[in-house]
Amino acid sequence: GRSAEAASPKAVAEKLAAQMTACDTDGLLARCEVAGPGFINIFVAPAYLESTVNSILRHGPMPPPCAPKRVVVDFSSPNVAKEMHVGHLRSTIIGDTISRLLEFCGHRVDRVNHVGDWGTQFGMLIGHLKNVFPDYATKPPPIGDLQQFYKDAKKVFDDDEAFKKVAHAEVVRLQAGDADSRFAWRQICEVSRREFEKVYSRLQVELEEVGESFYNEYIPPVIRHLTEIGVAHDSDGAMVIFPPGTKHEQPLIVRKSDGGFGYDSTDMAAVWYRLLELQADWLVYVTDAGQSQHFELIFAAARQAGWVGDKRLDHCPFGLVCGDDGKK
After folding, report:
1. Do the Cβ atoms of 211 and 271 come closer than 8 Å?
2. For the chain, how are helix, strand and coil distributed in percent, rounded to 5?
3. Per-position b or e across 273-309, b if 16+ CB within 10 A of its CB
4. Distance CA 218, CA 220 (A)
5. Which residues are bridge partners to 181 per DSSP?
6. What is the reported pLDDT for 135?
7. Under a CB-based contact definition with an 8 Å cutoff, are residues 230 and 260 in contact?
8. For the segment 151-205, what is each residue's pLDDT rounded down to a tens digit?
9. Would the pTM of this model clear 0.70, i.e. be above it?
């Protein structure tokens, strides 16, 4: 409960003003005054302003004193074969700003572009590539509009049952490491990469591409480790994690009942790799607020697994970017 002398807004303001004045050991404040029903007017000391401006003129802007850390900033992260929409641009600009600030403060920053370069949609795209450009292996496919290519492939996938079976077979071959399928996949990724780079170059943003596919080899051992330490549990054939201390009923599904892997699997493997292989001290994820629950669960699961210790995990969300229909 509130004490009697601090019950009113003005009384609270007076106590805050008194404490700020008492804590000012650097001569920052000239005075603090309470006005009206509880507003606090703060006056900065002229001598402090003069000293600060003189220091900037002589030495340039100086970062605050802090121990340098290795920081992974995960931002931008567009999807291969799709346009980089305004949500990705927002993540790109915010993530780049955070990276520049951390670099200015003396931290070692890994600017990671976690592109969506893996998944079942690539079976559809590879199958369509082989149909439209049968000589893709010897002649680079002249795909000028990858977004249209994706739409065309999706239409065939939806309308043609035979092609749908071909697409599913291509996914299996891709995930099994088939050389032809991997080559076709790399061709598609390269077209997207060139388009993304046009945007990054214009914005003067530097990123290191470490896509979802990079973590494929780490997913099985990470899940095995999570199972062995009792963090992941079987649920109707799937392996799931219910991290303690979260308010969400939906678990992380690190392995589907059919044995497949999804975003939860990849992101758990990415956290493991960044904390334990890269030995990063701080992970920062810059995505829209719609992924807040996902990252809350990922971070809680990583802590439950004992991977975090005194390291720092942050999700920096921004507002959803929706169209006129209210959808992302």
Report:
1. no
2. 50, 15, 35
3. bbbeeeebbbbbbbbbeebeebbbbbbbbbbbbebbe
4. 6
5. none
6. 86
7. no
8. 999 999 999 999 999 998 998 888 888 899 999 999 899 989 998 999 999 999 9
9. yes
Residue bearing tokens 């008492």? 22
- The average confidence (pLDDT) of the chain is 92
SS3 for 96?
helix
pLDDT at 139: 81
Q: Which residues pair with 108 in a beta bridge?
A: 70
Structure token pair of residue 225: 């480790």
Separation CA 264–CA 236 (nearest Å): 17
* SS3 state of residue 197: helix
Q: Which of 3-17, 74-88, 127-141 has the lowest mean pLDDT?
A: 3-17
How far apart, in whole angstroms, are the C-alpha atoms of residue 260 and residue 238? 9
The predicted structure's pLDDT at residue 1:
45
Name the residue among 252, 256, 281 with its Cα closest to residue 268: 252
Cα distance from N-terminal residue to C-terminal residue, the chain: 44
Q: Of 239, 245, 246, 226, give the one whose Cα is nearest residue 292.
A: 246
DSSP per-residue codes, 102-140:
HHHTT-EEEEEE--B--STHHHHHHHHHHHH-TTTTTS-
CA 64 from chain centre, in angstroms, equals 26
Torsion, Cα 303 308 309 314, to 10 degrees, reads -100
Instruction: Report the candidate in 222, 209, 205, 220 with the shortest Cα–Cα distance to residue 276.
Output: 222
* Dihedral pair phi/psi, residue 263, rounded to 5°: -60, -40
The amino acid at residue 292 is S
User: Distance between CA 193 and CA 210 in Å, rounded?
Assistant: 12
